[in-house]
Amino acid sequence: MPDNTATQASAQHNIPHAMSAPHRVPKERYYDREFFELEKTRLWPRTWQMACRLQEIPKPNDYVEYEICDQSILVVRQADHGIKAFFNVCPHRATQLAMGAGSFPGGQVTCPFHGWRWNANGTSSFIYGAEGFAPECLRDEDIALRECRVEVWGDAVWINMDANARPLAEQLQPAAGRLEDVAIGNWRVKWWQETILNANWKMAQEAFMEGWHVMRTHPQLTLGAGEASPAGSLRYDTYPNGHCSFEGGSLDTDFHSFDVMLASSQLLADGLDAMAIERDMRVLESVRHKIGPDDTIRAAVAREMRAYNEGAGIPMPAGIEQQSLWWNGMVFLFPNIFYLPMYGNSLAYRIRPYNDDPEWCRFEVWSLTTWPESYPEERAVLRGRFDKDDTDNWPLIPIQDFSNIERQQRGLHVQGYQGHRLAVDWEAGIENMHRELDKRLARA
Amino acid sequence: MPVVTVLPENLAVEVEPGESLAQAAWRQGYHWPTTCWGEMECTVCAATVVAGEHAAEPATAEEEAAIAGRMPHFLRKPGTRLACRLRVLDDGLVVEKPGVRAPQ
Ligand code: FES
Ligand code: FES
Ligand SMILES: [Fe+2]
């Protein structure tokens, strides 16, 4: 059934190319300029979004610039280790104050044009040439940097440009709880890099909301099963607020065989360096001779992982192996963040429009893992921006995904294409995201 | 933690590993002249090494390019370093920088 709120609201506020027919997505939502502009006025400026990971700004005065469409926000670590975010513009003549990531030595944010300065907390510290201005142009409240809302969740900083926004927890529920159950707060950056794709941001992210493209897109992961591998091997859920998830295994179901489990984990370790990493492979290999007569393979894996983590000082909350997401799965947080947890690790994605163009996006990938507690907090830095087909810098699995995404974007424009038709069983998360988007676009 | 002597005031500035001399000074409340605050744009932070050069990390190509390209040449001397890029390995470095003032 179509979602009544969205259809009514879209009638009232006349969203172009609104979702209407069930299981169908109008193609214009991925390239139409008017639709994109509506996202720029009604989605991004009023929605909580992950601006950076805490690890990007470990020390006082460290900053990161968060860009979304034509907006730019500076996230700055404070002397008391708290966090503030500011709209990144000089109140004098609009110069952008800082770019990329770095730190403000001496805790001074300086404008590169006429040298006005602010403390890292946004208060004005120096107005060069103040004597040449009319006093009403230099009122403290106008000259201080304008703050943007900030909250911290999941070891990351989230911002909202809307001063009246509801709390972050409201937007993230109920999906956030699923990630808290697998200890998202313990994950730290192993590597992080990005690519630019010639595709709408939604087109790109929808490629990760279902797992049944594995058969054709990532054939190596079916370990030779080919078309015989079942399309419906995962459980899919949609949630209020636009989130969705899928998951595969649980402690009550077992792997088909030890060798298949080991081979598929090895493919992740080699082909992705995420979800399963080298450290896990050593533990998994050791399980072969430790499966007792009354054991399932999963029970033995969980036991050995726990023993290894305890020895290494790697936190592993009690009972976490009862969570099917600990074994593998995906949680999408509306509007644009993904986590794919496995064994105390996770792959993560963030997808944003790029260059103010509906047909381009910036796609970031993190490999996250749980470090030993004693591990030093190193500043996380982007390894680089690499071409989508750069085999020296991208593992096989993302290269396979990226190649389809740009082909889809081109396909949208081919005559006779009628718009997406979604699988009820496996692609409801995509529809759910679009319907949440329409709700937000309909709000005046 | 290495200590740098700053003339002519004869100030002893402690510098943490990984931190530049100017950054260390600002963090501890010294006044160290600058207008760009560590962006390698103003060269106003420049100091002259007068002794103990072995205790300083050598200048990077970037720092040398900034001195050559942005600093008026009548201000440049042998031993000129940008304090916002000057990292210290050991005790014994002595630099001259008029205008540096101790924390009040
Ligand atoms: S534009 Fe920033 S000080 Fe003039
Ligand atoms: S502080 Fe400006 S160049 Fe060093
Ligand atoms: Fe994929």
Condensed summary:
Chain A has 444 residues and is an alpha+beta fold. In chain A, 27% of the residues lie in helices and 24% in strands.
Global morphology of chain A: globular
Can you give the mean pLDDT of chain B?
95
As for the number of domains of chain A, it is 2
Q: Note the total helix count of chain B.
A: 2
Helix content of chain A: 25-40%
Q: Report the largest inter-chain contact.
A: A-B, 9 and 13 residues
Q: What general outline of chain B do the C-alpha atoms trace?
A: globular
Rounded to an integer in angstroms, the radius of gyration calculated over CA atoms of chain B is 12 Å
- Looking at the chains present, what oligomeric state does this protein adopt? heterodimer
How much of the residues of chain A is beta strand, in percent? 15-25%
The low-confidence runs of chain B, each spanning 5 or more residues with pLDDT under 50, are none
Q: How many E strands of chain B? A: 5
Gap from first CA to last CA of chain A: 25 Å
The distinct bound ligands, ions and cofactors come out as: FE2/S2 (inorganic) cluster, fe (ii) ion
Give structural notes:
With 444 residues, chain A is an alpha+beta fold. Chain A has two domains: 49-164, 3-layer Sandwich (Rieske Iron-sulfur Protein); 173-277 and 313-441, Naphthalene 1,2-dioxygenase Alpha Subunit, Chain A, domain 1. Helix content of chain A is 27%, strand content 24%. Chain A contains 13 helices and 19 strands. Chain A has helices spanning 4-13, 33-43, 140-143, 168-172, 175-180, 201-206, 214-217, 258-271, 278-287, 297-312, 324-327, 396-412, 428-442; strands at 24-25, 49-53, 62-68, 71-77, 83-87, 101-103, 108-110, 117-119, 124-126, 147-153, 156-160, 187-197, 235-238, 244-247, 329-333, 337-342, 345-354, 357-370, 420-421. A seven-stranded antiparallel sheet of chain A has the order 2-11-10-5-4-3-6, with no helix packed on it. In chain A, strands 12-18-17-16-15-14-13 form a seven-stranded antiparallel sheet. A three-stranded antiparallel sheet of chain A has the order 7-8-9, with no helix packed on it. In chain A, strand 15 (329-333) and strand 16 (337-342) form a beta hairpin. In chain A, helix 1 packs parallel to helix 13, helix 2 (33-43) packs across helix 13 (428-442) and helix 8 packs antiparallel against helix 9. The longest helix of chain A has 17 residues, at 396-412. The radius of gyration of chain A is 23 Å and the shape is globular. The two termini of chain A are 25 Å apart. The model of chain A is unreliable at 1-11 (pLDDT under 50). With 104 residues, chain B is of the alpha+beta class. Chain B has a single domain, classed as Ubiquitin-like (UB roll), CATH 3.10.20. Chain B has helices at residues 21-27, 61-70, and strands at residues 3-7, 11-14, 47-51, 80-81, 94-96. Chain B has a five-stranded mixed sheet. Chain B is globular and about 30 Å long. The two termini of chain B are 22 Å apart. The A-B interface holds A 104-108, 110, 112, 115, 117 and B 20, 22-23, 26-27, 34-39, 41, 84. The site of fe (ii) ion has 4 residues of chain A, from loops.
